[in-house]
Amino acid sequence: MRVGVLTGGGDCPGLNAVIRAIVRKGVQEYGYDFTGFRDGWRGPLDNDTVRLDIPAVRGILPRGGTILGSSRTNPLKERDGIRRIQENLAELEVEALIVIGGEDTLGVAARLSGEYAVPCVGVPKTIDNDLSATDYTFGFDTAVGIATEAIDRLHTTAESHMRVLVCEVMGRHAGWIALHSGLAGGANVILIPEQRFDVEQVCAWVTSRFRASYAPIVVVAEGAMPKDGDMVLKDQTLDSFGHVRLSGVGEWLAKEIEKRTGNEARTTVLGHVQRGGTPSAFDRWLATRFGLHAIDCVRDGDFGTMVALRGTDIVRVPLADATARLKTVDPKLYEEVGVFFG
Amino acid sequence: MRVGVLTGGGDCPGLNAVIRAIVRKGVQEYGYDFTGFRDGWRGPLDNDTVRLDIPAVRGILPRGGTILGSSRTNPLKERDGIRRIQENLAELEVEALIVIGGEDTLGVAARLSGEYAVPCVGVPKTIDNDLSATDYTFGFDTAVGIATEAIDRLHTTAESHMRVLVCEVMGRHAGWIALHSGLAGGANVILIPEQRFDVEQVCAWVTSRFRASYAPIVVVAEGAMPKDGDMVLKDQTLDSFGHVRLSGVGEWLAKEIEKRTGNEARTTVLGHVQRGGTPSAFDRWLATRFGLHAIDCVRDGDFGTMVALRGTDIVRVPLADATARLKTVDPKLYEEVGVFFG
Amino acid sequence: MRVGVLTGGGDCPGLNAVIRAIVRKGVQEYGYDFTGFRDGWRGPLDNDTVRLDIPAVRGILPRGGTILGSSRTNPLKERDGIRRIQENLAELEVEALIVIGGEDTLGVAARLSGEYAVPCVGVPKTIDNDLSATDYTFGFDTAVGIATEAIDRLHTTAESHMRVLVCEVMGRHAGWIALHSGLAGGANVILIPEQRFDVEQVCAWVTSRFRASYAPIVVVAEGAMPKDGDMVLKDQTLDSFGHVRLSGVGEWLAKEIEKRTGNEARTTVLGHVQRGGTPSAFDRWLATRFGLHAIDCVRDGDFGTMVALRGTDIVRVPLADATARLKTVDPKLYEEVGVFFG
Amino acid sequence: MRVGVLTGGGDCPGLNAVIRAIVRKGVQEYGYDFTGFRDGWRGPLDNDTVRLDIPAVRGILPRGGTILGSSRTNPLKERDGIRRIQENLAELEVEALIVIGGEDTLGVAARLSGEYAVPCVGVPKTIDNDLSATDYTFGFDTAVGIATEAIDRLHTTAESHMRVLVCEVMGRHAGWIALHSGLAGGANVILIPEQRFDVEQVCAWVTSRFRASYAPIVVVAEGAMPKDGDMVLKDQTLDSFGHVRLSGVGEWLAKEIEKRTGNEARTTVLGHVQRGGTPSAFDRWLATRFGLHAIDCVRDGDFGTMVALRGTDIVRVPLADATARLKTVDPKLYEEVGVFFG
């Protein structure tokens, strides 16, 4: 039996760990052959493949990125996309496809599986942790660790100078990284996309913090937005979905705080640093187990499913469930964490 | 209302994060006063207390160790232990006691709560992750991260020299640290206390690894034991429970491998490095949430319970359940991981 | 004999290591007493002191920041500044003053020592490494390490996506951090304040890099400036010295690259993350030895001097030399490193 | 012109950085071709070569180990060793040889250069930092950083338990790693091979430390030796040079301390963890500059020389000087550091 593997969407530490686990178990225990597809869905579309055997996966466990390459190519938007994939898989004699990706990539897998009988197994991947149906996605723990370490370092400066320190972290639609790293780093304010913030409230927290102790640290997700009145027209941009966005929210907020409180403010924008480098031990554990269970799904002929974490178990869920809706931060959890604000 | 807090047993990153969360929420939201007891159960036995208010917990989130000190004092073994604790709590007007500890410390809390009506809430703590009733304990993720980083570094040497590298990690009765760090670090052999190992099998894995690729890395829990025939009398010691033990198993195994395979072997013994330093972001998150929920148990008058992690939720379980039996590695999980051996 | 100690200027990992070494050796070997002055020169100006003895310096070696606090107060600009300092030192019976600081702070010490017979010993401090007369200043190695780790992480993304990654690091007047971290991190372009850059040249390197291999990483010091024609009026700001500056050069450059090459570009701005947290082992070694030698200067009555690193030796140089001119990057060294551009 | 490159001796972070710099500059600026020899001197002996061009060195800067492999093969001890090397170099048309190694490897280069007219340039490498004629060797800073981080973590346990913590670090003949990491980590006792230690003195420091503050941390180089009377016959082994050695000095010392002071003691043996993994930013900087200057030596026809660090400059010294004697810790420096003992 020949199994195809592809990785789609943005970079995420742990992708290689999944690939390695799939191949090691598939070859050693089940005697499968593998075909790697290059650059996500572009690979099966263009019949662009990579050798994928045990030597190919040696030493990749701790490495960030993906040996298969990635892209955001969507075959549903390509002319004859589905048919070309079907033909290429048939030609290569690929009888099952393991698809490692986030919402978009898995969404395609769900439709291919459901409507076109392409036998897909999904593995959830996003540093943003916003996929439903799994407790965590790999890559998230690494990103939170990097952001937390940065916030830790900001405390030193906060202790010796009277400056507000704003740290912008990833998270366009979900505030998980901001919430976890802000809590773990002991931030004084955490702002997430799920809840529009009130600049005056932020300034009040900043001011009360100065009175109580040393300088405040504000963690803000890149997708966090001020309340309507706070933002003027020139601050806005439209993103690719046509939504109003505030690009550079960290820098914007620092300036507003300076203007309104009179305190100096400085910004750190972590950017892609959060999604690079070696995965954390947790993410390697999770990614490896996802890989081991994904190949078991193939062996069981259990297609249209996605592997998922539930507590300490790896379970199988319908692919369609995973991509049905974004997993955002529960208001109750945000409120629980709010005890540390100000 | 006045609430007492104590930390017992071995060192564990995250203890301070729990204490901080308890005090921050207890003071700010519920208006409680706190009494810190020094050195675990010795504190309430000897009426040895520490000031515990918001200034006392400032800045402690990222710090390892515990500001309250710890000990292995067991009041059940002290003359009049229970009575002295009851009297001291009464005198100090402490109406609830939050007990942060492992099996032994919580075992005392379970009996005090159950048999003597001392209102206790438990918070599970052990880097060994061997407490039942919770998915993970804080401190474990940090220990796994440290061990994984060490194993990562050993790979470099393994790649350029023909030496077997043995890495001894913590875990007297449960192999969780060995299993997680060995998997995350890409070890070629993982040995755990739950399953006696066969030195010949280890040597076979070592030899096959040399043939397939670069030098093997063997991760061994300190409590792992060879099969009976492998160990001769002079290798044995009796531990404090009267059990046969093999102290220095890493060094012992390295010598056996050298003797039997003719390959040089080198040992790393991480020791207490694994339980020190700042907690990982995951452990800070978990420890903080445990603290927030423990103080909620107090507010709800929900005594005799322990907070526990289930998936992404913090739940409450009976204290007695948590300490009823050690959570050891499931043979099926060990087998799942075995695909990477050799 | 009573010795005063103060720390001035910006935050810098290693300040506490210097203070600890001074006090440990001063008390244990010479029997001195110490007075800590709070917040740099503000301390002796306002007679604001801190207890400074062996218990006060316990455990501070690995901690960033300064237990004495810091400020940019300049007594030469204060009414009666010199006289107030002289009177306060006399009143406190402080017979020698150890001044830990950068260009400004040490400049004051040089004048107080030279013109007003205040017995000062200087210890050089700046993460920017731009002080003459010493091979390195402490704090610099830590900052370079943090920036290098960030650049390492950007490589992963650079490998899998076709995006230019711009990383803005500290360095207003000297490019040492950019040069060292850029080289150590394998950056493809390094831009420093010492040499105005040509945006077209940067774009040419970016384009050639894309052709040769994976996506380019551009490291830019915050004080780097484009050639005159490249920057239009609205991009400019005037800094506190009245110099034209380009604030947010990283973000500015990313936009220019996008505009001119058509490639997407993303920015990371490390900011104060670079000057916080625990000092590297190198900086602790250097800072500690500076402290040990500074107190020896006091014992020898060798005032008006600064301790400095020459090779592996700590030597003494005239304070005036150290602050005479900024140590900037030698064009030959920049050219040496240029072999890796593009 | 064709240039050969080899790496000999033990593993050391930074080897790949040297190789990359040599090839990048040699190809881009001077148009040279390169031949990589596999496994140190074994390569030119057995005519075992590796392709070495710009694609071969891509991405290797941050990787530990060496892409050329290494060995301790000594051609002076091989039959016809010199002649075979001369013939193989002639056959391959290799006109210059860059030799990256420690005392042994460079000693061969010195003799080949001096007595047999083989045009060699040396690059000093040893994590032990015991090569004369250079301020530092690359790999040392990385090893010190790893050991310091481990010692940092031990402090947490030392703070909360009454246990002596012994940390054994590398250094058979020179105590540089112990000295630097012990100082940077705030150890209370540092023991080095250069000076035999008195167990009673160590116990006195341990005991005084317990009185003054929290539990003591003892850093001991693997080559440190007790005074004659302290060690009994059964403790001794003979090393490959026929010298008396005490293998497992850390564990041995812990037991002696327990026996003599009655305090529990625990041991950490870092082992090969110290020489693995990615090089520090300092080591990458140094290794890269060594490589750039080594290829300049080739271009200048300056053979029989070694590149070396002096302050912030890279200079050239006779190969023979570098290997003439071991650079050990100066007793004055050890005494300087002694202020922190006890």
From TrEMBL, chains A, B, C, D:
Q: Where in the cell is it found?
A: Cytoplasm
Q: Which reaction does it catalyse?
A: beta-D-fructose 6-phosphate + diphosphate = beta-D-fructose 1,6-bisphosphate + phosphate + H(+)
Q: Which InterPro entries match?
A: ATP_PFK, ATP_PFK_prok-type, Phosphofructokinase_CS, Phosphofructokinase_dom, Phosphofructokinase_III, PKF_sf
> In the UniProt entry, which residues are flagged as the active site?
D128
Q: Which residues bind diphosphate?
A: G10
Pfam families, per database record? PFK
Q: In which pathway does it act?
A: Carbohydrate degradation; glycolysis; D-glyceraldehyde 3-phosphate and glycerone phosphate from D-glucose: step 3/4
What this protein needs as a cofactor is: Mg(2+)
Q: What is the organism of origin for this protein?
A: Streptomyces swartbergensis
Enzyme Commission identifier(s): 2.7.1.90
The name on file for this protein is: Pyrophosphate--fructose 6-phosphate 1-phosphotransferase
Q: Where is this site: Important for catalytic activity?
A: K125
One annotated Gene Ontology cellular component of this protein: 6-phosphofructokinase complex
In chain numbering, the residues marked as site (Important for catalytic activity and substrate specificity) are D104
Q: Where does substrate bind?
A: T126, I127, D128, R163, M170, G171, R172, E222, R266, H272, V273, Q274, R275
The protein's gene is named: pfp
Cite the source lineage: Bacteria, Bacillati, Actinomycetota, Actinomycetes, Kitasatosporales
Does the entry feature the keyword Metal-binding, yes or no?
yes
Q: Which keywords appear in this protein's UniProt record, sorted alphabetically?
A: Cytoplasm, Glycolysis, Kinase, Magnesium, Metal-binding, Transferase
- State what this protein does: Catalyzes the phosphorylation of D-fructose 6-phosphate, the first committing step of glycolysis. Uses inorganic phosphate (PPi) as phosphoryl donor instead of ATP like common ATP-dependent phosphofructokinases (ATP-PFKs), which renders the reaction reversible, and can thus function both in glycolysis and gluconeogenesis. Consistently, PPi-PFK can replace the enzymes of both the forward (ATP-PFK) and reverse (fructose-bisphosphatase (FBPase)) reactions.
PANTHER family (alphabetical): ATP-DEPENDENT 6-PHOSPHOFRUCTOKINASE 3, PHOSPHOFRUCTOKINASE
